Structure formats: C-alpha cells, structure tokens
Amino acid sequence: MSALHPFSLLAIAAALPAFAWILPAPAGGLATTLIAMGLTLTPGASPGSTGAGSTPGWRPGLVTFRTALVIAAPFWLFLRLLHDGPTTVAMGLRITTMVASCVWLVAVLSPDRLVEAMVARGWSLAVAYLFGATLSAVPVLKARARRIVEAQRCRGLSPRGSVANRLRALRALALPLVLSSLHEVDERTLALETRGLGMGVRRTPLAAPIDRTAERVARWTLLLLCLAALIRRLA
Amino acid sequence: MRILGLDGVTFWYPATANPALENVSLDVGPGEIVALVGRGGAGASTLLLIAAGLAPRVTGGRLAGSVSRGARAGIVLPTPWTQVSGMAFTVWDEVAFGAANLGWPGHEITRHVDRALERLEIAPLASRDPATLSGGELQRVIIAGILAMDPDLVVLDEPTAELDHEGTRAVWRLVRSLAAEGKAVLLATSDVDALPDIADRIAWLEQGSVRALGEPSLLAEDAMCEAGLGTTVARLWRAAGLGAPYPLTVVDAVQRWR
Prior knowledge:
The complex is a heterodimer.
Chain A: H1 6-22, H2 27-40, H3 47-50, H4 58-82, H5 85-108, H6 111-120, H7 125-154, H8 163-194, H9 213-234
Helix pairs in contact in A: 1-2, 1-5, 1-9, 2-4, 2-5, 4-5, 6-7, 7-8
Chain B: E1 4-12, E2 21-28, E3 33-37, H1 44-51, E4 62-69, E5 73-76, H2 91-101, H3 106-119, H4 135-147, E6 153-157, H5 165-180, E7 184-188, H6 195-198, E8 201-206, E9 209-214, H7 222-226, H8 232-239, H9 250-257
Parallel strand pairs in B: 3-7, 3-8, 5-6, 6-7
Antiparallel strand pairs in B: 1-2, 1-4, 8-9
Helix pairs in contact in B: 2-3, 2-4, 3-4
C-alpha cells in the first residue's frame, strides 16, 4: 500500500469518509467501515509509522488497527449517551470510517514522499512541508513522550498502577511535552529557514514518486463515483 | 573586502526592554575564522543569528545599526535534533534537503551532498535513518547539510557540543579547510583550548557588547583568565602564581619552562 503514489493514498483516505456520509446508513457506513478497518491491517513496516527496527508482517497492521479502535471507541460511547440505537450505529460507523482512514493514512503515507510528490506537481515547498510536518507530528510527539516518560521513571514517577497514579503521570508528562514542543518549533523554524525553506525558489524534487496512469485513472474514478453518489443521494 | 559587516548593531528581542546586543561592530573577511567567546547569555548566539540573517527576520525583535552580508550564509545551531528536516528517511536525503531547496539541478545537488558527506567523514551513514543516529553523528549530518548548500559565510554555534574527541578534531580540521577555500567562518564555542589553532581573531563578548577583539593571544590575557575564558594552560599558569605573560598552549608552556 505504501508504494502507491501519495495522492492515491490521500484520495482513498478522503473518499472513504465521503462515501460513509453520502451512502445510506447503516449499510453504506458499515461497508466503508469494514474497508477502512481492513486497510488499517495493511501497513507493513511503513517508515513513517513504525520507525527503525520495525518488524514487517502483521504486527504494524495490528498496531494500526488497535489504534483506530481505541480512538473510535469513545465516540461510540458518547453517541450512545446522546442518541438512540439506530442513530448511534449510523453516526458511529461514519465516525469510525473517518478515524480508521486517518489512522491508516498516517501509517502508510511517508511525509517525505508526500512533500516530493507535491513539489513535483508544482506546489510551493512551504505548503507541501506544512502537510508533511502535520503527518509526521504524531510519531515525533510519541517519541518525545516516550523519552519524557523514561526520564520520569528514572526519577521514580511510575505511569502504571492505579487511576490516580496514571493521572499524576499524565499531568507530569503533559507540561514538559507541550513546553519542549514549543521550544523545538522555535529552533526548527530557524533551522528550516537557514536550509532554504522560505527562499521562494522552486525545490528540486530528489525522488519524485512515480504517478502511474492507472493510479491517476483510479483517483479520477473515485472522485466521479463520489460526485455520482452525492447527486443520487440529493436527487 | 568583507563577507559580513556589523556596524554599531544593537538588537532587542520581542517584548524586551534591554538589548541582547549593544553597539557591536565586527567584520569577517573571506578565508577568515572569527571566534566568539563569552559566558552564557553574553549574546554570542544572538550575534550568530544576526550574522546568518535570521534575526530579526525570523526571530522578530528590533535591530539598530547596519548589517551588510555579501554572500549566502548557513548556520548550524547547537542542538542537532531540532535541526533535522523531518522529511528525510536517509542521511543522504537529510543532507540534500537544503541543497534541493535552492533549486539546483540534480547532478549539482549530488556532487555537493557527496562531497559534504566525505568531508564530515559520514559517507558510510548515507543510507541510515537520521532517527537512529547518535547526537554526535546527527550533529555532523546537520553540518554536512549546511555545507552541501555551499554557503560563503559559515556560522557555527557550539558545533562540537555533541561530539566526542575525534569528532571535535574532525570539525576543527574542517573549519580550517573551509577557511582555506576562502569561506568566512564565524563561530561561538566554549572549547577555548582549540581556538589558538583554529581562529584568526577572537571576539570577547560580555553582556551583549564586544569587550575585546584581537588575536588568539587574547585568550592568555589576565582579564580573560580571570573571567574563566582563557585557555586551560593560561589559567593554570595564572593559578599557579607564575608570572605574566601567560602561555597560550601546552607548546608555549613547554618553551617557557625551557
């Protein structure tokens, strides 16, 4: 999957939630949820999601699948508190599709490939970087949080045990995480500026991903299908 | 001819009343290495940001006086992990990030990147993921990334802070070779013992002002030793109560003993 052109991955991730909302509930939502959750099982050692030392095979996919489930679960809970059964199912399936699509996209889409693809297509580097940096924010924040937790463990603060213990650890994690992130933004801005991010010159693509005709056709087909479904729904 | 010229520069960071730099004048010519020394908070990093054209353009703040820069500058900041682009999964791509942003043709980028990797002695790391490197390796990757952009003014803020002894020596050798090629180098370092062999001139910063500017022999003067900024040999000589002038290096000390 991660070998697909970044625009194709974006198109799939955008089309699934669009279909989930356009197609009649609950069947439409159920179909898109099944596809999206199925996709979350596909990442196999994507560098963007798993980093160095990842083991190819099912493990990265299972992690992505579990992440999507964990993020989607609270939505179901709140929907159930606010709505009746059929509405909960309809809305829950749509939201689950959105969550699973996003989690899958973050797992399979390498930010550097997206930036290269956008630059090759004539987008400005600053805009392309904004997209890429957003995608890479999750693994970067995870890695930093892990380092902070390790440092706090060394000083005797355990993130395990009772709920109170975990809440205490969460509070101790949040402040340094936010402050260090803000500090890093300052320094990274300076570093990127000195490396020509704001020069306004068109960047030379180093290894622009190959955009096959079949993929371009598939993307247009997805867009047309979405439009057709929307027109049919509104008619 | 000068590559960088600061004339009476005063700089205030945003929302501060006191200037971080006050009335600083400094020239750096081609092939020259000027080292800034001073205690923490003396203004060295701010001066480097101004030299690199990042302050006040990116940092914000207000600048009085004039800055003339006759060439492109590249700056290496002290913490390597905040300088990675985050857009590269190999060291080669990371080093090429800046060069590609200049819009150079591919073969030109390849030539500069390969040369930078060789110069920093990190060619064997080219296919590694930057996230798996040690702090010292990453610092060399960042320096290579700046050199691959072929700047005429190289600005280095504590470039050896993350490096081991060998890495430190390699960077200082590199700095000398950059100057030999005609590049201007402005650096801030706390490794004052290396400066007699590296720097052409020393600027001693104190509370945002240049207190003294001169040859590396400045590092053996009484006032610098008293401020804790002299070389180790000079400070030891002074602490031992031996007479001035103090030797600058071990070689000087040996000659004095004979």
